[in-house]
Automatic annotation (TrEMBL):
Gene name tied to this protein: ligT
Enzyme class, spelled out: hydrolase
Record-given protein name: RNA 2',3'-cyclic phosphodiesterase
SUPFAM superfamilies: LigT-like
Pfam families from the UniProt entry: 2_5_RNA_ligase2
Top-level lineage group: Bacteria
InterPro entries cross-referenced by the UniProt entry: Cyclic_Pdiesterase, RNA_CPDase
Keyword Hydrolase: yes
Protein EC: 3.1.4.58
Family: Belongs to the 2H phosphoesterase superfamily. ThpR family.
Length: 179
């Protein structure tokens, strides 16, 4: 049963620029830069037949122009129980429309509806229990100033993940060009 998600790949030069923010946070399990991505829709563990239906549904994605993605800061998910350090992505209209289309297509393929609000981001680290709110606040206050990073892409990727690791390595199973 594959664990799947759709996402936007992060080019090597952007990943290299993000790597400067990795390190110095106790309790962080850093994501390999080659595995950085913007998740559009996490599908979870799906049966092979559903995976095939997802690929078929995603191939019906409508044509659209290339998408500009801008990363504009650092943040922490989890509040009192920090669980991830991320680079935030500007939720511009084209990105939000693409994510909504992904949701419609995978639901048509038999995937359960997503219950969480879409917050576009690139995960830089998963955080263990020893990454306290105080430690993460200190990390953010001492991190280098975040200079916005922008890139353009023209496709969605269907990724698979090993369920035992939670954070890569990820495999690109299929790509779906915008045009």
């Amino acid at each position: 049963m594959p664990r799947l998600f759709t996402g936007l790949a992060v080019p090597a030069e952007i990943a290299a620029a993000l790597k400067v923010y990795q390190g110095g946070l106790p309790g962080a399990r850093w994501i390999e830069p080659g595995d950085f991505h913007v998740t559009l829709r996490f599908l979870g563990d799906v049966e092979a037949t559903v995976a095939d239906d997802v690929v078929e549904a995603l191939s019906e994605m409508r044509a659209r122009p290339a998408l500009t993605v801008t990363l504009d800061g650092l943040g922490i998910f989890g509040g009192d129980r920090p669980r991830a350090l991320y680079a935030s992505v500007v939720p511009e209209a084209g990105l939000m429309d693409l994510q909504a289309e992904q949701e419609r297509l995978v639901r048509r393929a038999g995937v359960e509806p997503e219950r969480r609000k879409f917050t576009p981001h690139v995960t830089l680290a998963r955080l263990r229990r020893d990454a306290t709110p105080e430690a993460t606040a200190m990390y953010l206050s001492q991190a280098p100033v975040f200079t916005p990073l922008t890139y353009t892409l023209d496709r969605v990727t269907l990724f698979s993940a090993r369920d035992s690791t939670g954070g890569g390595p990820y495999v690109a199973e299929a790509e779906f060009p915008f045009a």
